[in-house]
């Protein structure tokens, strides 16, 4: 990626240029030090125009039809409710498996054709932390471009769901009715993340099974906590094929966010997310610095050789590596930033 004019890029984002948005997201996804510095500058410039969108996380079991649901819901939000909708995918496994990015875009063909929609898959390389960082920063770019609904879709692998719940206002869990084992494979911890639950594919011969699954899940949610004063995630049914129930699902999602705003907890939730993100960024920057520092690599080679011949303990070796890191701090890219 060639060096960009950050000021022009920020202006293009504000103007809603799709090319500028795509270039900006590519920039914030990059892990190259020079690109990270530019990305930080860009995020500072667009910061006053972020934070106003409705952020919704969407996850679900395999086969729940997440992409089909996002396509149907996104089209409805644009055509009937006049929103501008952006979709971000969180798939830390895509670097190994190729993910389902092409399939997802095929299943989102109707949404992709809308001028008021923007769909972006996760970066194809990197661990969950890197993907989560890129997703957070991409979300800010899209908010600055005027997208007022951001749908963050996760593949549903446990940790990615936790990561997504830490960057959205409302977390929507999609489930599908399975004969006799509707509750199998659903982890309690994942259910506790959910603000709203929807049983998908509630159409045709499957409609009754979906209603049964919804009742069973509603009972399960009551069993998770005995505190009647604590909010329980409502369970609904819907069909992405017929559109039945989609309005009710979105109204319930919107109601949850309105309740957060009325109680004054939306701002608190976002502040807590910012604080968590602050320390995640500190940790990631330190780990990247440790990984790339020539002084640390040289010290690590010596330490590991000494560990092999038992002339040094792990505790002493850790101290040697940390001492090398301390000596290298002045040469790190963030050491001379304003305020340092």
UniProtKB/TrEMBL annotation:
Q: Name one GO molecular function term.
A: kinase activity
Q: What InterPro entries does the database record attribute to this sequence?
A: GTPase_ArgK (IPR005129), P-loop_NTPase (IPR027417)
- On whether Ribonucleoprotein is a keyword of this UniProt record, the answer is no
Q: In the UniProt record, does the keyword Cytoplasm occur?
A: no
Return the Pfam families for the record. MeaB
Question: Which Gene Ontology cellular component terms are annotated?
Answer: cytoplasm
Q: Which domain of life is it from?
A: Bacteria
Q: Which UniProt keywords apply?
A: Kinase, Transferase
Recorded hits in CDD domains, A to Z, give:
MMAA-like
- Which protein family is named in the record? Belongs to the SIMIBI class G3E GTPase family. ArgK/MeaB subfamily.
Name under which the protein is recorded? ATPase/protein kinase
């Amino acid at each position: 990626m060639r060096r960009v004019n950050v000021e022009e890029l920020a202006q293009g984002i504000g103007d809603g240029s799709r090319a500028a948005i795509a270039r900006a997201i590519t920039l914030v996804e990059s892990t190259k030090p020079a690109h990270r510095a530019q990305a930080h500058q860009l995020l500072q410039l667009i910061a006053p125009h972020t934070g106003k969108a409705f952020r919704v996380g969407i996850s679900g079991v395999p086969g729940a039809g997440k992409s089909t649901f996002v396509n149907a819901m996104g089209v409805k939000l644009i055509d009937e409710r006049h929103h501008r909708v952006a979709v971000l995918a969180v798939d830390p496994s895509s670097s190994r498996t190729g993910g389902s990015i092409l399939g997802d875009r095929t299943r989102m063909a109707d949404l992709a054709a809308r001028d008021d929609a923007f769909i972006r898959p996760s970066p194809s390389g990197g661990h969950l932390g890197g993907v989560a960082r890129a997703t957070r920063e991409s979300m800010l770019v899209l908010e600055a471009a005027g997208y007022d609904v951001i749908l963050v879709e996760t593949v549903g692998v446990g940790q990615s769901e936790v990561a997504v719940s830490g960057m959205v206002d409302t977390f929507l869990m999609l489930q599908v009715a399975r004969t006799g084992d509707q509750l199998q494979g659903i982890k309690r911890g994942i259910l506790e993340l959910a603000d709203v639950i929807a049983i998908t594919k509630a159409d045709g011969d499957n409609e009754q099974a979906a209603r049964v699954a919804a009742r069973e899940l509603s009972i399960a949610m009551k069993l998770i906590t005995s505190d009647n004063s604590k909010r329980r995630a409502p369970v609904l049914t819907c069909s992405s094929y017929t559109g039945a129930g989609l309005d009710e699902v979105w109204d319930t999602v919107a109601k949850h966010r309105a309740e957060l705003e009325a109680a004054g907890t939306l701002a608190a939730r976002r502040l807590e997310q910012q604080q968590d993100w602050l320390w995640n960024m500190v940790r990631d920057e330190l780990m990247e610095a440790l990984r790339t520092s020539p002084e640390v690599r040289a010290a690590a080679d010596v330490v590991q050789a000494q560990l092999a011949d038992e002339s040094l303990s792990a505790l002493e070796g850790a101290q040697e590596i940390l001492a090398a890191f301390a000596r290298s701090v002045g040469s790190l890219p963030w050491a001379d930033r304003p305020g340092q």
